[in-house]
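Wait, can you check?
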Amino acid sequence: MLTKSIVMLDFETTGLSPEMGDRITEVAALRIADGVIVDRYVSLVNCGVRIPSFITGLTGITQKMVDGAPPAAEVVPRLLEFIGADPLAAHNASFDEKFLRAEGGRLGMGTGHQGTLCSLKLSRRVFPMLGSYKLGNLGSAFGIRFRGTAHRAEADAEVAAEVLLHIGRHLAASYGIRAIDPALLLSVNKLAAAKVPTFLQKHAASQPAA
């Protein structure tokens, strides 16, 4: 399951928009391969900006915590090196990817990941009857517990990674697909929910005989 590696990314930030000056305060990147998390890069980030009080209330990340953290000029290059050319995944991926590109751009660094998978969109396509696709609600629906504090990067990334693995196991069991890889999940991510079963049935039928 997930025989080729993929990196699950989660940022905590000062707000919603890097275009409006918002910056990252914490990052967690977890590499998933062969159905488990095999490596991780986690760090608070000092971007030299003020942490809004509502962000501290939501995440627990204080000004003192980021003031003592490594600077973005140190964290971001290490993060980009960690991701490398692997596909990227995130829950509500457009949010995390825009911050990744913005922070890299500030340092004159591009991103090298090969494709971006959104676990929120994928959950909608594979489980279209669920009432909510928020990370905490998906965790509850799939029996996945937070092992840390919600709205902290590592805890959120771990739950998102387990959601992705749950989806992979569900597809393998439901359609008889022997190898679930990022390329297949990226293809499903791009489909309308109604087209997913037929696509997966055809994919399963096209597999070489065992």
About this structure: Strands lie at 6-13, 24-33, 36-44, 88-90, 116-118. The longest helix spans residues 153-175. Residues 40 and 150 are 18 Å apart (CA to CA). The mean pLDDT is 94.
